[in-house]
């Protein structure tokens, strides 16, 4: 049981560690990136506001390294210049970025502008026309240049992009198309921001990367919760089954023990019975009759119920043994016991006193009725057809307990009566009148 708990605790600990790792490492592990290197055969262009009536100038400083310089000049209300890159070198076929969460920009900027603008231009035949470059949707964001870190790094959430107002107004776009759309981005633009003063602006685009989560944070946490629920359910089911198994084993053991106890009880009782019986005749032995004698004596003392005993001794038994053999003698002893046991009351107790001598304990019996019983038994024995076909007789000594007499005295008188019966021709009953 203890080892099972330890195992369970280890599993819970492992699950906790895995859960913590899953939560902590999620931003790194479950993320996929779409990296755009401007030098990878993308069509790029830099532009200024001259075509719009301005006077600014733009020049490549180091084209292979995406470095350009913009000289903003006055004399035009909204001066600008910028850089654009075709993702697939096509105005129509772009890249689906709708599943990405954010854009990472690596851009060096040096100049007096306060903000920089980024456009993610989406082509959609629902609102774009092949002959009009400006008909691609201008998803835009304008960020403060201070947000760029030392090395030019900035992460922008795509949800922060909105559609440029001027574009919505210029194309009279219906409401359903007026939201940001990244399904087919064909051009990425980086432009000077609004509120520009004349001056020199230096840009270098070092890289663009789009980032998305393979599994959303919500789904990931839901998955972790489901895993925990499954683990708890699994544990509960396992516990129920193991407890059931344990209970069944316990019940089986209990029933085995009960059976064993019953068997032992039975054996103990058998042994007890055997210990109180004579093995040859089945009659009680001395120990077996002792209890009955003590009880009867007690009855005599307490309730004056008279205790009487009969001593019975087979006549000339030695001769019978000698004539018919010891085994035949045994058989006579057994037959005699059966005969007597079946002709006495249930309260009487018949015991083998030793050899061919027997004792009959009669509780609550007067001398006269005990003598009558002895006489009845004597006649029964005399007339009984023993298997050995020999005549079997017995002599009886009867005695009833007297006031202030103990068992020793009672037995002594019964013995004397028996001796008297033996002495005077045997096969007779002598009652002690003392
Ligand atoms: N077969 C058999 N004989 C037994 C048993 N116990 C005692 N005896 C025999 O009983 C005989 C008793 O002999 P005795 O004491 O001389 O008495 P008896 O021959 O019956 O003579 P009386 O009692 O005087 O009539 C002996 O021979 C014993 O061996 C027994 O369990 N089986």
UniProtKB/TrEMBL annotation:
One Pfam family matching this protein: GGDEF
Residue ranges crossing the lipid bilayer per the database entry: 12-31, 220-242
Gene3D superfamilies named in the record: 3.30.70.270
Class of enzymatic activity (EC top level): transferase
PANTHER family to which the protein is assigned, alphabetical: DIGUANYLATE CYCLASE DGCM-RELATED, REGULATORY COMPONENTS OF SENSORY TRANSDUCTION SYSTEM
MF-aspect GO terms: diguanylate cyclase activity
EC numbers: 2.7.7.65
Annotated GGDEF domain residues: 305-434
Keywords from the UniProt entry: Membrane, Transmembrane, Transmembrane helix
Name of this chain's protein: diguanylate cyclase
InterPro entries per record: Diguanylate_Cyclase, Galactose-bd-like_sf, GGDEF_dom, Nucleotide_cyclase, Rev_trsase/Diguanyl_cyclase
Reported cofactor(s): Mg(2+)
Catalytic reactions on record: 2 GTP = 3',3'-c-di-GMP + 2 diphosphate
